């Protein structure tokens, strides 16, 4: 199979070439990324433990004191809950950063492929390349910021309208729902913007944003179809991988619901250790199940760039 980047491909060609590159060079990608994947799995497991174990347990304790026992909430429990929420927020931020840095280990090899049409296997197993980490993290954060600005502005407008027209709740809800779908669809070209920014060193994000988004918008159908098919494949695989995590999380929630109703927790002593190990293994596997989507976006970027270049040559 030909793995050259700059070639005009259909969505099927993009997806098949992406998986071909991934599986034929899996040892290379794994050797370049496994240390960051381990760190990602540690953060992922810690975050899942807070969301599925610690916060539900504290919430159940608070609700039992206030709703069932009709007693005043103890300051110790309130303090523990606030600390848990604060730590959760920090872990979410850390999760985003570590995810970006883990992605950078893949993008580092893709950048090498972009520049030389080849990839070299790292010489050592215990080396983390920092080459693309700064640019990837910057691209992540700037893309999130760019996406969130219109969301925040529109939310503020809806909130202001609701203050003056409280009777129009249903109309506002339907409008917000439709607008959310439209905005979500219009955000697909941002994937092209992100990949172009990462692959073109020396260019600022916002200097590329306007032209790249316009170009991506012209190829919206190609981007949407490619991401839809590729995303469905990955979601199916990730869903199977996450089944043990989902089952354990539901077991914790059901135990806390029973505790709220006066039943004993009924969980074995080793459940927290088992949960953390399960979350850790799930997080590690998710890295390698989801990263083909990054390669799909990479080849989608190359296909769009090639099409535009060929069109400009024909125009001349």
- Share of residues in strands: under 5%
Give me the number of helical elements: 10
Oligomerization state: single chain
Share in helix: over 70%
Report mean pLDDT, rounded to a whole number.
Answer: 88
Mind describing the biggest β-sheet? none
Contiguous runs where pLDDT drops below 50 for at least 5 residues: none
- Order of SSEs, N→C? HHHHHHHHHH
**Cα distance, first to last residue?**
32 Å
Total strands? 0
Q: Which radius of gyration do the C-alpha atoms yield? A: 23 Å
Described by the principal axes of the CA atoms, the overall outline is: globular
Based on secondary structure, the structural category is mainly alpha
Helices, strands, pairings?
Elements (H helix, E strand, L loop, with lengths): L10 H14 L1 H43 L6 H42 L16 H32 L4 H18 L2 H11 L5 H14 L1 H22 L1 H18 L10 H45 L1
């Amino acid at each position: 199979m030909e793995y050259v980047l700059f070639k005009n491909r259909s969505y099927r060609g993009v997806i098949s070439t992406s998986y071909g590159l991934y599986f034929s060079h899996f040892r290379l990608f794994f050797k370049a990324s496994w240390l960051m994947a381990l760190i990602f799995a540690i953060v992922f497991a810690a975050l899942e433990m807070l969301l599925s174990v610690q916060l539900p347990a504290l919430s159940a304790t608070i609700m039992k004191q206030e709703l069932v026992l009709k007693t005043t909430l103890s300051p110790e429990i309130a303090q523990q809950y606030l600390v848990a929420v604060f730590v959760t927020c920090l872990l979410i931020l850390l999760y985003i950063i570590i995810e970006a840095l883990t992605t950078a280990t893949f993008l580092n090899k893709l950048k090498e492929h972009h520049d030389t049409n080849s990839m070299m296997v790292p010489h050592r197993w215990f080396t983390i390349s920092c080459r693309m980490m700064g640019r990837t993290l910057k691209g992540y954060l700037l893309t999130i910021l760019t996406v969130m600005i219109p969301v925040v502005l529109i939310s503020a407008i809806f909130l202001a309208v609701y203050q003056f027209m409280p009777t129009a709740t249903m109309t506002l809800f339907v409008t917000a729902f439709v607008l959310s779908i439209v905005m979500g669809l219009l955000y697909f070209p941002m994937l092209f913007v992100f990949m172009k920014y990462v692959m073109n060193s020396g260019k600022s994000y916002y200097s590329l944003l306007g032209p790249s988004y316009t170009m991506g918008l012209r190829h919206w159908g190609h981007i949407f179809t490619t991401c839809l098919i590729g995303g469905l494949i990955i979601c199916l695989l990730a869903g199977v991988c996450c089944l043990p995590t989902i089952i354990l999380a539901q077991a914790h929630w059901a135990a806390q619901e029973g505790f709220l109703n006066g039943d004993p927790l009924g969980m074995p002593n080793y459940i927290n250790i088992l949960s953390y190990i399960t979350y850790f293994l799930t997080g590690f596997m998710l890295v390698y199940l989801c990263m083909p989507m990054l390669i799909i976006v990479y080849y989608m970027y190359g296909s769009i760039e090639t099409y535009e270049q060929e069109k400009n040559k024909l125009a001349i």
